[in-house]
């Protein structure tokens, strides 16, 4: 079943409303502040509740709304396991990262590292790593936008997807260059509200369809998936061989450890006034994200039971269109007014989700470029300092370039599952950013060489292993299906690249003849734990 209905103009109109509202917010907020603190940190005056909504808005991307629910609909138990990894990751953020990062940094991850290390090499490494992670994440969101709009227009043509990706790229460039962090945060808050509201509505409708009997829902999903009992047991997607199980362990590691190293999540902690506010906003985010993933399980099973595995695969082989198709069916099916209305509303919410997340990602990426690379890493010691105004201009220019690059790369990755693509971004973040951040905050001896080795020691293996994995070549669903140059058997590199990141940091520190800056560590410790001297 696909939406080849002539009235898809309604859904397109709702998309236009989403775009109009987000652009209005951007223009209205963008007039209010032009200082670097406004552009990169939104003026640091958001409340914990506002930032909690914005954090969940940043985190609940197309991967969660479209990708994870699609995986649950197609693979049952194994898809549910996927969502657990995304949620458990927040405990790492809460316990180890949120307050300390808020106190120790200013705008970016590299600010935390540069407090006790030599500025230039550390900022160059951390800035580059942040840009790689955000670019991989961006590609996933834009692929999701392509499949969503193609479904909406009742077409599977490459041209429709390509133009959608170009349009989303253009919009995200406008959001970032005009509105900065303040506008991006308000867009996230609106989007999180819409996403949770839409999910509650669909969950209630799914439970009502099965008269509150969740057992019947699971049995019907298993029967209509075409997989029978295997659907409700582990191993359908990740269990046919030892290699598959290893791949799942690799993915789980990447999801649980990656969140604490995602640049667009870390930069969110700088938008609140204090470390206590950062911790409280993390608690709000955990509540909102946890509630969403519980509903995602019901929605995934609902899509499997109501739409059926066969129809889901016909519409999109990776399952990215499960939620809009479920909405269409729950409202009365193809051709019904309510079905079309619900389909249009849910598709518009998914589109708002994508727009908000790409704005946050582009901002984090342009901040890494302007604040870390352009203003500091590429400057000679003792040379002319870049003014705050020049830094903001550089960030706006880089947002245009990054947006263009993301558009081009997204056009080549349209066959891949969105949640899976995000798993790769998490693997790079967990391999390169998290080891460096944890060592810097908790290891007194950690040195500049250790920090640089840790970033590159995780980043390079992660990227190389992805390039030579079945994701890029060697199978029908690869980015390049016609060729085969893969030699790394796992689809997610986390199992290998995350330990390498930690190991490289330790070896680099042990081999560094230059002693660690003990005074710098003492200052970092006091600042991170008490907030004394924090921005």
From TrEMBL:
<feature type="transmembrane region" description="Helical">
    <location>
        <begin position="52"/>
        <end position="74"/>
    </location>
</feature>
<feature type="transmembrane region" description="Helical">
    <location>
        <begin position="122"/>
        <end position="140"/>
    </location>
</feature>
<feature type="transmembrane region" description="Helical">
    <location>
        <begin position="190"/>
        <end position="210"/>
    </location>
</feature>
<feature type="transmembrane region" description="Helical">
    <location>
        <begin position="338"/>
        <end position="371"/>
    </location>
</feature>
<dbReference type="GO" id="GO:0006847">
    <property type="term" value="P:plasma membrane acetate transport"/>
</dbReference>
<dbReference type="InterPro" id="IPR050277">
    <property type="entry name" value="Sodium:Solute_Symporter"/>
</dbReference>
<feature type="transmembrane region" description="Helical">
    <location>
        <begin position="392"/>
        <end position="412"/>
    </location>
</feature>
<dbReference type="GO" id="GO:0015293">
    <property type="term" value="F:symporter activity"/>
</dbReference>
<dbReference type="GO" id="GO:0015123">
    <property type="term" value="F:acetate transmembrane transporter activity"/>
</dbReference>
<dbReference type="GO" id="GO:0005886">
    <property type="term" value="C:plasma membrane"/>
</dbReference>
<protein>
    <submittedName>
        <fullName>Acetate permease</fullName>
    </submittedName>
</protein>
<feature type="transmembrane region" description="Helical">
    <location>
        <begin position="80"/>
        <end position="101"/>
    </location>
</feature>
<feature type="transmembrane region" description="Helical">
    <location>
        <begin position="160"/>
        <end position="178"/>
    </location>
</feature>
<keyword id="KW-0812">Transmembrane</keyword>
<dbReference type="Pfam" id="PF00474">
    <property type="entry name" value="SSF"/>
</dbReference>
<dbReference type="InterPro" id="IPR001734">
    <property type="entry name" value="Na/solute_symporter"/>
</dbReference>
<keyword id="KW-1133">Transmembrane helix</keyword>
<feature type="transmembrane region" description="Helical">
    <location>
        <begin position="451"/>
        <end position="472"/>
    </location>
</feature>
<keyword id="KW-0472">Membrane</keyword>
<feature type="transmembrane region" description="Helical">
    <location>
        <begin position="492"/>
        <end position="511"/>
    </location>
</feature>
<feature type="transmembrane region" description="Helical">
    <location>
        <begin position="283"/>
        <end position="307"/>
    </location>
</feature>
<keyword id="KW-0813">Transport</keyword>
<keyword id="KW-1003">Cell membrane</keyword>
<feature type="transmembrane region" description="Helical">
    <location>
        <begin position="12"/>
        <end position="31"/>
    </location>
</feature>
<feature type="transmembrane region" description="Helical">
    <location>
        <begin position="248"/>
        <end position="271"/>
    </location>
</feature>
<dbReference type="InterPro" id="IPR038377">
    <property type="entry name" value="Na/Glc_symporter_sf"/>
</dbReference>
<comment type="similarity">
    <text>Belongs to the sodium:solute symporter (SSF) (TC 2.A.21) family.</text>
</comment>
<feature type="transmembrane region" description="Helical">
    <location>
        <begin position="418"/>
        <end position="439"/>
    </location>
</feature>
<keyword id="KW-0769">Symport</keyword>
